[in-house]
From TrEMBL:
InterPro entries: NRAMP_fam. Keywords: Membrane, Symport, Transmembrane, Transmembrane helix, Transport. It comes from the Bacteria. It comes from Alteromonas gilva. The chain crosses the membrane at residues 34-55, 76-97, 112-132, 139-162, 182-205, 226-247, 272-298, 310-331, 337-360, 372-390. This is Nramp family divalent metal transporter. It is a multi-pass membrane protein. It holds the Pfam family Nramp. The lineage of its organism: Bacteria, Pseudomonadati, Pseudomonadota, Gammaproteobacteria, Alteromonadales.
């Protein structure tokens, strides 16, 4: 348990650095250069604040976020509405996210051996089911997180050797863009960083680790901040390499040429390395998304939230099956991934409001309750994302 506990923050970072992050950040850099860095910076700050709330909630209550919310609501009708909200928000959101994870991982495998992304998604779905069913996914998850870390290192080195135009990057950062055409990409950047299901997953991981081997809350909080910050830097480097390869060029970014951005460093091996990396990122997220959904929904329904529970297995199995079916529907790969991130951006205000409510009202929080600066930041996150969503769909 100590090993799993020590990785909780980085498991969360690995969960959001999936194929959605690689594809969305690549599309942002290719289409808008550094004009959307403001959206990434906002997302990282918001993620640090919200994940810190989830850490404090799990630490203080020793239960997951759904259980903590349910225990604070007495009225049967209100509890029923809460359960419906969690099931709808996390269930639908994670199904969309799972489709993006499977699609991204399938793109990588299909580059190595072409048999179609749909076929590969079925194979990946079965692999994820096998790992979760037996509950022995921690070692494989650690290996995949390491592979994603190696891929991140390659993006950093690639950017360094590709003679980036630092002046152009700085100029674009100082001229942010928020046009109607860019709103989907902005929401996707936000949705791929501030992942709603990670709030439920993080609280559950902290609660279960803390109940076994206690340690100071500050240790969990520091690790969470560090891990999210590193994840944000990785996303920034991905944006930068895509900008160098595609921004202002005649060639448009698509699923078949995502690896081109690594060519300055890896040459003919760029496609192979990118395929392995995005497969690793996709499979890691393919495991964590249904796992988080199971924790959230079981908590809302007051069902056992452990890997041996029938309810728990039924929920994560449903998420994987739905994700596979979406990938088999014929939706274009990058569009499926981008939609998953945008869907997360739309769901986030609802989840963030629930978390804010708990962080100000739960009796067990004590000194870990939200202070007014944290509340202001949390409310600002909700308002901005809701406004962006309104602008996009109004």
């Amino acid at each position: 348990m100590a090993q799993a506990r020590s990785k909780s923050g980085f498991i969360i970072a690995a969960a959001f650095i999936g194929p959605g992050t690689v594809s969305t950040a690549s599309m942002a850099g290719a289409s808008y250069g550094f004009h959307l860095v403001w959206a990434l910076l906002f997302s990282v700050i918001a993620t640090i604040v919200l994940q810190d709330m989830a850490v404090r909630l799990g630490f203080a209550t020793k239960v997951g976020m759904s259980e903590a919310i349910a225990s604070s609501i007495r009225h049967p009708l209100a509890r029923g509405l809460l359960a419906l909200l969690v099931i709808s928000a996390i269930g639908i959101g994670n199904a969309a996210y799972e489709a993006g994870n499977l699609t991204g991982a399938a793109i990588g495998l299909n580059s190595l051996y072409a048999m179609g992304t749909g076929s590969w998604s079925v194979v990946l779905g079965l692999l994820a089911i096998a790992l979760l069913w037996h509950g022995r996914y921690h070692l494989i998850e650690s290996v995949l997180v390491s592979l994603v870390g190696v891929m991140a290192l390659v993006f950093v080195v690639t950017l360094a050797v590709s003679n980036p135009d630092w002046a152009a990057m700085a100029s674009q950062i100082m001229h942010p863009v928020a046009s109607p055409d860019s709103l989907t990409t902005i929401l996707a950047l936000i949705g791929t960083t501030i992942v709603p299901y990670n709030l439920f997953l993080h609280a559950s991981l902290i609660a279960r680790s803390e109940s076994q081997t206690p340690q100071p809350a500050t240790a969990y909080r520091r690790q969470s901040t560090l891990a999210v910050g590193v994840g944000g830097l990785i996303t920034l480097f991905i944006m930068a390499t895509a900008m160098q390869a595609f921004y202002g060029q005649s060639e448009a970014l698509h699923a078949g040429n995502l690896a081109k951005q690594l060519a300055p460093l890896l040459g003919s091996y760029a496609e192979l390395f990118f395929a392995v990396g995005i497969f690793a990122a996709g499979l890691t997220s393919t495991i964590t998304a249904p796992l988080a959904a199971a924790y959230a929904v079981c908590g809302a329904l007051n069902k056992p939230a452990d890997l041996t529970s029938g309810w728990f297995k039924a929920i994560w199995l449903s998420i994987i099956v739905i994700g596979v079916l979406v990938t088999l529907s014929g939706i274009k790969p990058l569009m499926a991934i981008l939609f998953a991130q945008a869907a997360n951006g739309l769901l986030l205000p609802v989840i963030a409001l629930l978390l804010l409510y708990m962080m100000n009202t739960h009796r067990q929080l004590g000194r870990l309750k939200n202070n007014w600066p944290t509340n202001i930041v949390g409310i600002a996150v909700v308002v901005l994302i809701a406004w962006l969503s309104w602008q996009k769909f109004s």
